[in-house]
Each structure stands twice: as C-alpha cells, then as structure tokens.
C-alpha cells in the first residue's frame, strides 16, 4: 500500500520529499542524499558539477521558446536538523523519518521532520524531473551543512554559478517574501575543569529541566521560549550554596541554532539535605510552570536518584561558583528590535549548548544581527561575561547579513505574481536568521535574490510540521515565477 504522503498534491514534489526522508541526511552526513540528487539528474539526462566540499549544481536547459530568458538558480540545502524526543527510538544515521499526514499538516513521529529544507529540495527535484513546466535555463544549487556551519555556501566554488537570479526556498511562512537576513557568529566559552573527591556523606543525583518546546534560535527567539540551560542555572545558583550541592557534570542543548529544550546536571548532595533538595526541585518546578504557562506549559524539573553514571569527582567550589555566575550572567534572548523594519528582531543571542568534557566545560552561544556593528557589540558582551568567569573565549562560523533591496526587479515580478495568483499582496520582510543568500550574494556580486517557502512550524524540534495547503501554494507560486522571469 502506497504511503499516504506520496498521494498528496503536487504529487511529484511530495514523492521526492518522501524519497529524501528515507535517506539519512543530518548535517555533515549528506553523501547519500547528494547521491540521490545526482541519480535524479542522470536519469533525466542533466549535467551536474560538484565543488571542493561537494555541494552540487545541476543544469537544465530551457523549455522550447524560453531559451532567451535569464538563468534562474533554485537554491536549497541538503541537510536537516536531527532532533528527537528522549523517549523516541530513532537512529538518524540509518532510520527513515516516520511521517504522518494529519489533516492539513505533515509531521514526524517524535523527531524533526526535515521539511526545513527538505520541501525546498523536493521542489527543486520536481522541477528538475518535470516535462511540462515552462522555464528558462536553470541551475539547481544544493548546498551542504547549512544547519551547523553554512559550509556549503561559505565554501561554494567561485565557478559554480552562472545565473544572477536566485530563488532561495528556505523560508517558512506562507504569503511572505524575504529580501534580507541577519548575519551571525558563534562564540564558545570554555571553563577549565578542576575537580576533587566527592564529599563524604553525600549522594549523587541527577536533576533535569525538560519539557520545553525549543525551536529555531532566530525565528523563535522573539517568543520568549524557555531555555533549559538558563533555567537550570537559575535553580542551581540559589540552591547550590543553600543545600551544599556540588556539581560533577552539566549537559544541555544540542545545536547552535536551536533553543535548548533539556538540561541535565549531576550533583552530590549531603544526605541530610536530600529532603530539602526534593522540596526545592518541586518548588522551582511550580515557579517555572507558572512563569511559562502561556508559552512553554510542558516545562518540568525532575530529580532522579538512579539511571545515570555515578560520578567519581566534583568540581572544586571556586570553579563551580565561576561556572554558575557565568551561566546566570550570560545574556540570552532578544537584545534589540529593528528601527528600520517594524517587528523585526535586530540583534539576539542564544545560550545554545553546554557540554562537560574531560578537561573543561564548554558553553556554545550564537549571536545574530542584521547590523554588523550590533553583532560585534553583542559578541563583546558575551565575551566579557566569559572573561569575568576567567574562561577561554573562541569565535566561530561568522557569516554576512543580506541587505534588503526593495527595488529588486525579481521582487517586483514576485509581488505581481503573488497578487495575480492569490489576490493579496505578499508580506515583504527580512528574517532574523542566517539564510544562505547573504553568503551567496557576497560571493556572486549582482545576484538578484528572494526567499520564500510554505508554512513550517516548530523547525529544529520534534514538533516540526509543514502545512499541506501552503506547500500547494508555494509550488504554484514557484512555477509562475519560473514561467515569467525575463518577460518584462
């Protein structure tokens, strides 16, 4: 019996989405999905090329009568964010995504869906394979490792593209056309470990903050969602000195561009303080549930007395104090709103991941801004807090902003088509996220670009879902643009 996903219209797009979701494609593991793209190109007699990092460009000639149209580049990224609920059994290195069709939505069973950017990839593959879509000469750019490093865009070969009109299909809001995005940078902070023996008369327990939505650290930072690392730090900063808690390990979050949903800490507590610790956990759980009742109602704080590896040491008191001061003092969330674009977050920072390693505790943060000087300023703030804790600070993964061009000829055409098709003006905006357009436009001067896509909710979390009706509109909009580029 055919999977119901494969029977949704437009069938060719959904067929390709089904096929790529059978293929593991976490960031930095794109070899198999890249092979699928090449297979589609070869069976349709299309030429392709790869650059040094093995992003792919496929070329397709114009349909008859449109040979004189300018080359259009369709661009999407092959990788997906691989997140799952803790109780979900799924191996992203080999298991297909289990998809469910629920009314007007397609979602996954306890994992990310990969609609970001799998719908864009599927749309490009459908256009590649189609025989009855009108279009001029085309290039299909499939980049790698967008989600964890923007590697494909940053290292895209200078000779990969001829076209100077680019349609990026990595946006997530029906009815919106994006013409600008934020630039960003990761800042990593390392607190060297110094340990000592577990105090006598103590018992190790695990405390977990969880049940949070998480989500995209750019698109959803404005919502004020709970950050599990920040909430854990808030609890420990007060409870540790009061109850004599000594930390052995703290781990939370998983991706630089995702708001952390869970955080675990292993602490040793004096036996005579165990009852007080249980009461404190119950109390802070109640506080968080009240504070986040309207936005993150599933939040919990739980104490486990088993089910974890017993620690062999604890952090020295001075190291623990510096770490907790760092985590409590580290900024997280919206830093400023744009004065140029109403409702747009201009600058933000995300406390994203904390990991206890053999010799240090590593905290990964991610800064974004549509203004370079503001990006520098918030990075300085994060660095200063790290330096106050006598920590090491490193910078990674800088990428440029995409400056809006409201006079774009491509934008003019897209707005006209949107009104013709849907009888409403599109919402033209910039996005507080790192689209590859900024990097590609910087690498290929004169590139006229827009970004659009269907409604995708909960990206980067197991709640990710894509709206079926919006995918149909996205497809119609895409085909109308392809049919009309260059017609004046």
Give a description of the structure.
The chain is α+β, with helices and mostly antiparallel strands and 488 residues long. The chain has two domains: 4-182 and 401-484, Aminopeptidase (3-Layer(aba) Sandwich); 185-399, Alpha-Beta Plaits (2-Layer Sandwich), CATH 3.30.70. Helix content is 30%, strand content 27%. The protein is built from twelve helices and 23 strands. The protein has a six-stranded mixed sheet. A five-stranded antiparallel sheet has the order 16-17-18-9-19. Strands 4-5-23-22 form a four-stranded antiparallel sheet. A hairpin with a 7-residue loop joins β22 (456-457) and β23. α6 runs antiparallel to α7, α6 (228-243) runs antiparallel to α8 (317-329) and α10 (409-422) packs across α12 (468-484). The longest helix is centred in the middle third of the chain and has 18 residues, at 274-291. The chain is elongated. The model has no long low-confidence stretch (mean pLDDT 96).
In short:
The protein contains 12 helices and 23 strands. With 488 residues, it is α+β, with helices and mostly antiparallel strands. The two termini are 47 Å apart.
List keywords for this structure.
12 helices, 30% helix, 2 domains, 488 residues, Aminopeptidase, five-stranded antiparallel sheet
């Amino acid at each position: 019996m055919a999977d119901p996903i494969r029977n949704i219209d437009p069938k060719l797009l959904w067929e390709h989405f089904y096929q790529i979701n059978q293929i593991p494609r976490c960031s930095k593991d794109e070899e198999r999905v890249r092979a699928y793209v090449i297979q589609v190109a070869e069976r349709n007699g299309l030429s392709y090329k790869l650059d040094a990092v093995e992003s792919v460009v496929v070329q397709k000639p114009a349909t008859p009568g449109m040979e004189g149209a300018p080359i259009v580049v369709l661009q999407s990224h092959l990788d997906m964010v691989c997140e799952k609920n803790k109780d979900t059994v799924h191996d992203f290195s080999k298991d297909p995504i289990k998809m469910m069709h629920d009314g007007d939505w397609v979602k996954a069973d306890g994992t990310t869906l990969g609609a970001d950017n799998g719908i864009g990839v599927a749309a490009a593959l459908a256009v590649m394979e189609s025989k009855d879509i009108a279009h001029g000469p085309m290039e299909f750019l499939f980049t790698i490792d967008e989600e964890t490093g923007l590697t494909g865009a940053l290292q895209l070969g200078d000779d990969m593209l001829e076209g100077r009109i680019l349609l990026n299909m990595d946006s997530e809001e029906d009815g919106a056309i994006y013409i600008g995005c934020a630039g960003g940078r990761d800042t990593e902070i390392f607190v060297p470990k110094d340990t000592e023996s577990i105090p006598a008369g103590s018992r190790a327990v695990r405390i977990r903050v969880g049940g949070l939505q998480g989500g995209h650290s750019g698109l959803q930072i404005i919502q004020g969602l709970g950050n599990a690392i920040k909430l854990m730090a808030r609890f420990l900063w007060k409870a540790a000195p009061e109850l004599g808690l000594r930390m052995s390990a703290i781990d939370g979050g998983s991706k630089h561009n995702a708001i952390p949903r869970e955080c675990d800490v292993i602490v040793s507590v004096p036996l005579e303080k165990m009852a007080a610790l249980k009461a404190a956990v119950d109390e802070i759980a109640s506080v968080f549930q009240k504070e986040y009742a309207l936005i993150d109602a599933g939040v919990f704080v739980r104490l486990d007395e088993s089910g974890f590896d017993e620690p062999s040491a604890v952090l020295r008191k001075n190291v623990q104090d510096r770490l907790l001061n760092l985590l409590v003092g580290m900024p997280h969330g919206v830093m400023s709103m744009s004065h140029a674009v109403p409702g747009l977050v201009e600058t933000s920072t995300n406390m994203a991941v904390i990991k206890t390693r053999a010799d240090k505790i590593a905290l990964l943060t991610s800064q974004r801004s549509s203004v370079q000087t503001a990006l520098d300023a918030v990075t300085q703030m994060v660095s200063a807090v790290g330096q106050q804790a006598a920590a090491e600070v490193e910078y990674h993964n800088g990428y440029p902003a995409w400056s809006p061009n409201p006079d774009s000829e491509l934008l003019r055409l897209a707005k006209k088509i949107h009104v013709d098709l849907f009888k409403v003006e599109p919402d033209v905006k910039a996005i507080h996220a790192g689209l590859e357009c900024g990097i590609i436009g910087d690498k290929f001067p004169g590139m006229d670009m827009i970004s659009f896509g269907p409604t995708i909710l909960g990206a980067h979390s197991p709640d990710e879902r894509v709206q079926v009706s919006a995918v149909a509109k996205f497809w119609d909009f895409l085909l109308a643009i392809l049919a009309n580029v260059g017609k004046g």
